[in-house]
Amino acid sequence: MMQAEEIMTKDVMTIRGSATVAEAVTFMKENGLRALVVEPRSETDPYGMVTETDIVYKVAAFGHDPKKMRVYEIMTKPCVVVNPELGVEYVARLFAQTRIRRAPVVKGGLLGIISVSDILRKSDFVEKPKSNFELYWEENPSAPSARMYD
Predict the structure, then answer these.
(1) 91-122 burial string, b = 16+ CB within 10 Å, else e?
(2) Rounded CA separation 10/73 (Å)
(3) I need a labelling partner for 101 at 20 to 30 A (CA). Which of 47, 53, 131, 149 fits?
(4) Strand order in the sheet with 35-38
(5) Domain that residue 109 falls in
């Protein structure tokens, strides 16, 4: 099973929570991004995430001034984070259950970001699909093996 660290995007763009939404929009446009990871304020502070959807739904839809609103006012924090060793199938399941499209990959610090696009483009789920039995076996290696009888 491929792991998150094998398909994640390692070049992650971050922004401070104190930045204006206008600065975030400019940064996202210049770099062709749909989301930014919001930097923690301290080592114990969780990561956040601001997406184009946050900006459209929380700023543009209400006519707020993006030059006056701050990223911390509209971001999702704490956000779901992924361990780099997590299997891609589990990341896909996590995304489906939480209805998110991307998450920072964190272990001791920010390592990358993984998205549904990464799963679709870089993982091997098409070439190597897992059956329910194979997933069960990977989760429970001490379970008695199954046998097929004719």
Answers:
(1) bbebbeeeebebbbbbeeebbbbbbeebbeee
(2) 27
(3) 131
(4) 14-15, 35-38, 48-51
(5) 4-139
Q: Give domain status of residue 40, yes or no.
A: yes
Which residues make beta-bridge pairs with 106? 110
Query: Rounded to an integer, what distance in angstroms lies between the CA atom of residue 130 and that of residue 134?
Result: 6
Burial grade of 42 (CB within 10 A; 0-12, 13-18, 19 or more): exposed
Euclidean distance between CA atoms 46 and 78, whole angstroms: 6
Residue 95: give its domain's CATH number: 3.10.580.10
What is the tally of structural domains in the chain? Answer: 1
The verdict on residue 31 lying in a domain is yes
pLDDT over 50 at 147, yes or no: no
Mean pLDDT computed over every residue of the chain: 89
Rounded to whole angstroms, how far apart are CA atoms 34 and 48? Answer: 14
Omega into 141 within 30° of 0, i.e. cis?
Answer: no
Q: What is the pLDDT of residue 143?
A: 54
Give the separation between CA 20 and CA 38, rounded to whole angstroms: 12
Percent of the chain with pLDDT over 90: 79
